[in-house]
């Protein structure tokens, strides 16, 4: 048995990974966390309260502690990522900068809306790395966009409560969902967008419209 496990360790790991993501997906769908957008004429049609968002204590790029309560009353956006991500994180973050710019034009970004990008790789994503990612690579406006880091295990637990999932393999590589979550001013999770790189179901305009819909509700 030991020889079999050693010989097929990669296959076993990949099977386990798929199995775990399957369980997670079933839990997210079953709990109503994920608002699937494909095939809908209006992906922002349903903004029913899903659940209460968890509070947290995380460090921003200036070393200050940020919590959910700090932005009470604002519409909050959450995205979990890591700066060395080779695929979905860079284009998704770029899309969020486009949503940021739309909301700035409407005069609500920072004043009524706050973005939160939370790394699940704090070992590599130092404050300096996150600040460079935010300002040099993505032109984020830090007056209304928090780039946050904290304990890796707790962050993974918060991710699940926000409707996302991350799995780390023995070599330190991450597999993760690519969801953007909207939280209203009272701390209720109202929308979980499934952002897919091969689909235009969710765009910067989609997200900005969803934020505005929550602001106006």
Labels describing this entry:
19% strand, two-stranded antiparallel sheet, globular, disordered N terminus, 217 residues
Can you characterise this structure?
The chain starts with a helix and ends with a helix. It is α+β, with helices and mostly antiparallel strands and 217 residues long. α3 packs across α6. A 6-stranded mixed β-sheet has the order 1-10-9-4-5-6. A two-stranded antiparallel ribbon has the order 2-3. Strands 7-8 form a two-stranded antiparallel ribbon. It has helices at residues 2-7, 9-30, 89-105, 127-137, 152-161, 204-216, and strands at residues 51-52, 58-59, 65-66, 75-81, 113-119, 145-148, 166-168, 174-176, 179-183, 188-194.
Give a summary of the structure in a few sentences.
By secondary structure, the protein is of the alpha+beta class. It is 36% helix and 19% strand.
| Oligomer type | single chain
Structural class: alpha+beta
Q: Helix segment count?
A: 6
Rg on CA atoms, Å: 18 Å
Shape: globular
**What is the number of beta strands?**
10
- The largest beta-sheet arranges its strands as 1-10-9-4-5-6
Strand content: 15-25%
Could you name the ranges where pLDDT drops below 50 across 5 or more consecutive residues?
Answer: 1-23, 25-31
The residue-averaged pLDDT reads 85
Cα distance spanning the termini: 59 Å
Could you give the topology of this structure?
Layout: H1 2-7, H2 9-30, E1 51-52, E2 58-59, E3 65-66, E4 75-81, H3 89-105, E5 113-119, H4 127-137, E6 145-148, H5 152-161, E7 166-168, E8 174-176, E9 179-183, E10 188-194, H6 204-216
Parallel strand pairs: 4-5, 5-6
Antiparallel strand pairs: 1-10, 2-3, 4-9, 7-8, 9-10
Helix pairs in contact: 3-6
